[in-house]
């Protein structure tokens, strides 16, 4: 169950790393109410706007690679045998280079991300993604 | 349906503004898998850690008020008559003063927030909250 959702989550990063616009488009629910928050940015609403932002970002990144840590997966509703929503949080350790113009384009940066996936037939698709930069100081919690 | 979720969402800000720790505790699902990302911070996991962070923040803020704009509510699964999850995104225009030591304590700041609420009997409770600072430049979208 959550394994299928994790496959979608992994495919998302594959799409960004390889600049695969078609793969990225296949991973999102096509709906005017989906949303995406890039680090430091205001929310984008609707799959058309979300995919446009990723297309621009991927066109402007020469090289980008994500190393995911602290990945946590929860299925909702809690304690339901037939969950309809999966929430995945993770830390994105990002290595990038090339022409940096996109909102998520920076070298050796760290972001945290909350992704919301919904069931789509046998698989899962993105409904929402919220990524934010991690300040080096002032965290309420440390990774120890 | 979504009105009840919005009542919980409003009560969350009431709790922060009035420093009502008990109200805040009543608004979250008590589960080790809930999560909360304060602006610039790494995720806190589990209701105990989440509530501790809010208690510390509220104890250290002299005055804080939230003016919410661009609030958008979606129920999941999409097009389901009996949704089990509600996602609320909004922009928090924050006015604060006093002893500023908490992660969400700053004067005249702006953040964007994605909240995930799940059904709890007749009402709704917080499962996840992800807030992030908004950079004044570099947004992929503008509010016009």
From TrEMBL, chains A, B:
Q: Where is the signal peptide?
A: none
User: Which Gene3D superfamilies does this UniProt record tie to the protein?
Assistant: 3.10.450.50
- SnoaL-like domain spans which residues? 7-135
InterPro entries this protein is in? NTF2-like_dom_sf, SnoaL-like
Pfam families, per database record: SnoaL_3
Name this protein carries in UniProt: SnoaL-like domain-containing protein
Q: Which organism is it from?
A: Aeromicrobium panaciterrae
